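Reposting from the mailing list since nobody answered there.

I have sequence plus structure tokens for a pair of proteins and want to know whether others read the tokens the same way I do. The first protein:
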Amino acid sequence: MTTSIAAQQYDVSVCIGRFQTFHHGQLALLHRALASAPLCIVALGSAHQARTPKNPFTWQERAEMIRLALPEADRSRVRFLPVRDYYDQERWVGAVRQGVIELAGGTAGTSFVLVGHFKDATSQYLEGFPGWTLDALPLQGNIDASALRDAYFGNAGSALDATLAALVSQAPASTLEFLRAWAALPYFQQLAQEWDNLRQEKARWAGSPYPPVFVTVDAVVQCGGCVLLIRRGYAPGKGLLAVPGGFIEQRETVYQSALRELMEETGLQLLEGDMHHALKAVHVFDHPDRSQRGRVITHAHLFDLGSRRPPEVLAADDAASAEWVPIEKLAGLEDQFHDDHFHMLDFFFSLTPRP
């Protein structure tokens, strides 16, 4: 149900987004939310991801970016809720709802209004909060955060000042100053290089008659309370933790590809019968936004080698290192994982609490 804020005041207003980066369209939604309730909760998505061109800023940095764009009197009325990417709509909605209610100190009778707009199919989550009034605004100008990031990282050299000057009509002055200061950090040049690598990779597929859909495999191998991980040696995700895996080859099954990638990247090579016996599950991860590369569907194979001492491994191919990591330590490494690989491990090992 869509209701004009002029018709009713609410106890709590809610804005949901990734805010990478914060622009005038999002600021307009936030002003609407602040006008409709004394307390506004901003749910920050992709809250615990590693830094990438798609998610360059931590949730704390984004919260500060938003605070700086508000008048001093309004800043104390805003609370921030970090929400991880679950790649599971029902679980994500549950986490948002539970977090909002806890932050608001909600009791029976608390009224909530969700302020947002329907940009495209990704905005359907707005209809997933029964019991909250939906205040759906029209699009607030032709502003897109992805385009802002492209301009930011695509002009990482001497053109940065001119680029920021050209964005004055799209983002608050405080956001542009934040971006200018942030560009002095070492992350900026690293992510700009990664952004360029991704741009070149996507350009190679630009002439395809259909958007490409890639099929990959991953090998989740547990042994003695540990899981086998690599550090990626190349972009995208250079230096980040990942499950061993890669692209399927033309004459392979997904199982054969998983074994080959596992051996190539970690040197782990057990008898075929042992690996077949150790295979416990295969799960397809196919969320449209799971990979920076575009549409990538992976088949994750779970192997359990039992409680024995983990075998020796040696990184090769496109892995910079390979190591057995205790499963109990994975939750503390969430912001070091490539793409959705932490989510894959969470699926198999239940690393995060479920709302």
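The second protein, same order (residues first, tokens after):
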Amino acid sequence: MPESPEVQALADHLRERSAGRAVARVEVAAFQALKTFDPPPTALHGRTVTDVTRHGKFLDLDADGLHLVLHLARAGWIRRQESMPATPPKPGRGPLALRLLLDDGSGWQVTEQGTTKRLAAYVVRDPAEVPGIARLGPDPLADGFSRDDLAAVAAGRGVRLKGLLTDQSLLAGVGNAYSDEVLHTARLSPYAIAAKLDDEQLDRLYEALRSVLRDALERARGLAAGELKAEKKAGLRVHGRAGEPCPVCGDTVRQVVFAESSLQYCPTCQTRGRVLADRRLSRLLK
């Protein structure tokens, strides 16, 4: 799933190449992806793209005050093309969800791999009309995000750090991959309880959160959409690397597998050598 660094890089890339162009038409191929009906997608036709921004993991195209908001979910992606197909797409089970065509012949292809379609598109007058945006917590990539902001999020919450980092209503934009990277950098267990962090642990978490996301954003800046996934994977130290040596201490990176996701961590760096049981709702092995 693209997280805030990749979505921000996508927004920058698409803004640079789309701002100032008029929307020729919007073609919906996967109607289940469209979550709104008023205004219809045709209301975007003829409007000029004025900006492309990000809200957490949501991408927001502003066309003269009307917004096309996209959430790419786990397997969605956007590619900009200099030349778009002349024939409208046929609705079906293929990966294409939506096309946005601009007046110079270029456009966006919004696709999602797999049989389970979770990608979502909204046409709204205000991004806050999108429920997922309305409930977003503070964004750790924002310039003003402070240690006190993180402390306020963690205070009194009896949730594990993995859950704290990935709950979009608490912190916007962090997903499964970067939460693993943040916790490894901070040398904290994914099962540590947020409310029980001491000042020194909270300092480490804050610094890791900011540095991991900023470093990922810097690596992603300037890359074309097709290069972002490979760059993200190459920059990860523990996520997706179960069985490989930890780049810090050399211990074997372990994982815990859940129903629809997994986490990776280093026992030496994060859990004082203890191994987490690899089952849902597991606890530290004694």
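Reply #1 (J.P.):
I read it the same way you do. DSSP finds eight helices and ten strands in the chain.
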